[in-house]
Amino acid sequence: MKMILADDEAVITRGLQKLIDWSALGIDITGVYEDGKSAFEGIVLHRPDLALLDISMPGMTGIDILKECGMMRLKTQI
């Protein structure tokens, strides 16, 4: 499975990448984003299976991204 991470605090995304053995879970992190707008663009462009998003980010919130993905009927699980 492909997954993206998005959080405006880089220490959070780095920590998530180090704390969890994603490959053992069959997950490949294909993108890491620091703002909501670029995270949304990454979802639309790369169509990951999963997206782990911060709720409060500049550009777009995680909630905004969830709504937009729903309206576009994207299959990414958020």
In short:
Helices cover 40% and strands 19% of the residues. The protein has helices at 10-19, 36-46, 62-71; strands at residues 2-6, 28-33, 50-53.
Write the layout of secondary structure elements.
Blueprint: E1 2-6, H1 10-19, E2 28-33, H2 36-46, E3 50-53, H3 62-71
Parallel strand pairs: 1-2, 1-3
Helix pairs in contact: 2-3
Walkthrough of the structure:
The two termini are 13 Å apart. Helix 1 (10-19) links the parallel strand 1 (2-6) and strand 2 (28-33). Helix 2 runs parallel beside helix 3. The protein has 78 residues and is an alpha/beta fold. It has 3 helices and 3 strands, in the order βαβαβα. A 3-stranded parallel sheet has the order 2-1-3, with helices on one face.
Shape: globular
The separation of the N and C termini measures 13 Å
Helical stretch tally: 3
SSE ordering: EHEHEH
Question: What do the pLDDT scores average to?
Answer: 96
Rg, alpha carbons: 12 Å
**Approximately what portion of the residues adopt beta-strand conformation?**
15-25%
Strand tally: 3
Question: Largest beta sheet: what is the strand line-up?
Answer: 2-1-3
Secondary structural class = alpha/beta
Helical content, roughly? 25-40%
Give the low-pLDDT segments: none
Largest sheet: 3 strands, parallel
